[in-house]
Amino acid sequence: MSATTPSLLKRITPQLIILAVVLGLNVLVFPDFFDVSFRNGRIFGNLVDVFNRGAPVALLCIGMTLVIATKGIDLSVGAVMAIAGATAASLVTEGHGWGTALIGALATGLLCGLWNGVLVAVLRIQPIVATLVLMVAGRGIAQLITEGTILTFNNEGLIRLGAGTVLGIPTPIVIWLALGTLATLAVRRTALGMLIEAIGVNEASSRLAGINSRVLLICVYLASGLCAALAGVIVAADIKGADANNAGLWLELDAILAVVIGGNSLLGGRFSIVASLIGALIIQSVNSVILLSGMPPEFNLVIKALLILAILVIQSPKIGHLIYMLRASGPESLPERPKPAPSKAPGDSTS
Amino acid sequence: MKSRRPMTDQPPLLHASGISKFFPGAVALDEVELKLYPGEVHALLGENGAGKSTLIKCLTGAYRRDGGVIRLAGAEVDPKSTADAQDLGIGTVYQEVNLLPNLTVAENLFMGRQPTRFGLVNRRAMNRAAAEVLEGYGLQIDPGEPLTRYSVAVQQVIAIARAVAMSGKVLILDEPTASLDRDEVELLFGVIRQLKERGLAIVFITHFLDQVFEISDRATVLRNGRVVGERLLAEVSQHDIITLMLGRQLEARVSEKKGGTPGELLLQVNDLAKRGMIEPFSLDLHRGEVVGLAGLLGSGRTESASLLFGAVQADQGKLLLEGRETRITNPREAIAHRFALCPEDRKTDGIVGDLSVRDNIILALQARQGWMRPIPRAKVNEIAEHYVKALDIRLASLDMPIRLLSGGNQQKALLARWLATEPEFLILDEPTRGIDVGAHAEIIALIETLRENGMALLVASSELEELVAYSTRVVVLRDRRQVKELSGDEITADNIVAAIADEERGAA
Predict the structure, then answer these.
(1) Are residues B359 and A341, on separate chains, in Cβ contact within 8 Å?
(2) Which domain holds residue B410?
(3) B470 & B456 share domain
(4) For A86-107, how does the pLDDT look when each residue is reduced to its tens digit (9 = 90+)?
(5) Nearest CA distance, A208 vs chain B (angstrom)
(6) If exposure means fewest CB atoms within 10 Å of the residue's CB, which of B275, B293, B484, B497 is most exposed?
(7) What is the CATH code for A48-322?
(8) For residue B323, is pLDDT > 70?
(9) Closest Cα to residue A94, out of A209, A242, A219?
């Protein structure tokens, strides 16, 4: 567990460096990037936008980090966003208050998480397949809720969740920072983090050590569903409407990418929510560079892909090992990457 | 079993000597010698983990050996891959048939060396040649049919035919009979006898001793990576071979009998069973007592341990804990009743490789406390450091991932994990497998200490000398059935071997 500050800092240093570099690129293409102004009781600025626009992916990657730590994956989060947005929108258009709408949306998210969790933990379906079901079906469900239209609404309270401010700070930023902090505390101040990591590394051993892996697995998918629902509400509130087809489209991939850029292994085990959140910021900063550079929009996806590729190459074990070798000055510290162990244990049975 | 002509006057066809192989933290093979004579079936015997597989892999180039010389027909060879070994004349057939099920019999036989005409595969010639080859093995089948049309035994023979055609000097059969029924075994043995006549040197690996005596001329027995004996099978009995496999240089050590008398009754097991896994199993266990579980591989040792720990659920029988009937349906419940299990397969069921040694040690205790009540950091360190010292776990730091530790130290860390939960009933499944000699002795001493402190222990082991040394009683298993319970002076390696072997003959 990296609960102590110095080891956390060490863990997220690569992500911080990359973030700094990408933000630097932003300044290159748009010198006033870091300017922050305060008008009409709200802070403005490109940096603020990065934090604000990055909110959905940031929220998604909190849950996704936990799921991936258990060696799972949740492909359905984008669709769950659409369902939650549709639920919230339909509740307020039916005349319910924004509080009811929010709770209804979150409950839907939890229900989706429960569905995924049961498929994975109880029925033992591979996570990628299990969550694919809801990824495909989810948009259909959202369309059923919105009855095939883009459901617009004018509920002030709900809109404030996406476009409002708290103490001058856009609400989405407050929400993801708060949830990120809460989640980090929840996994690191309790034993949850270690138990989740143990399941991700070796579920058989963990079960024999008395960990209730089934319940924990369901819990991480619940968390992922909840995060996705919150992201869905924010996106719907932002555009004052629920678009079943486009809300959260492909965001599951951005969320997975954020987790990976955050240095978390897709094979499960050790994880850091903070690093994933920085990963989400990196992705949004990349989006920002492309926007601010004024490049024709048809280049956007290709450039984003190239930037992401560059980030992943820099983070790859090969390059990391190279850097380690270059820096290696003495044997006093153990190498991070051990020599590859033989694929078979000594004297593996013939049976 | 007639007409067995020892051919020791001939030079060996394959002579491997001084073969050594090291894995991190363990010696898998220690100066192993293997002599294969032409026209002989040579059984390679040993318990799980004795090094049979590793030896075969070194001979066929699947592993790089760390030492030793292989001579084939007098000339030194150095196979670098299985393909290399094949070219040299060493062919291997594995238990899981290594053929391509979607291709025809003929294609499987000639894969990679199909007869061609004008650069195209000449199917007709290939099928004809295949039919001829297979007829030589007494198989009259249509080689144009897909492989999956035929039974595993036939596929096995096809695999052998392919290996013989490709290699033709040494044939290694790795558990070829594991999934065959009696008639199929006969078919296979017919083929083996025929190949013997043709002068091949054949290595036969199996766990079925009856089959060893039926088909083999000579046996090499491995234990813990060392050769413990080479015997002409005409000159020895099954009893002798089992003794060699399980080991015993122990008559002297039995004398120091365990001090102290067992305490009160802790656990009563009444006819606990699981269909297909273990027959009804009964056992009384007292505090301050070590009950050993003996038996050959597959006799039900691990299954009994898993059943008691709730890792698998019993479908009949009762468990009484201090006289009260208790149902244990999963490991969590077992742990709540202060049970602990150190599993046989350390790597897949024991360690959580990427987590630190500290996390691994605290895992079971933390899991029992629940996630809501994290054990304070200071307390975690105190517990971990205590056991690192008490069990002499060698590590660079508590923060290092446990997978970097050697086998013996991993085992000790796992013991620490369970001792930290202060169990009343500790199940150890093969606690000394694959660990170095020093750690071995320490773990045996630890078992003794734990017993003296009043813990009830159940220890499954294939090391007879060990069982004799620390057990107050020994339960012998055979064919997933409890066949004998030995106590007091009855506990000798001879008696255990006799209990295993008697049944061995009865089952033949």
Answers:
(1) no
(2) 350-422
(3) yes
(4) 999 999 999 899 999 999 999 9
(5) 6
(6) B275
(7) 1.10.3470
(8) yes
(9) A242
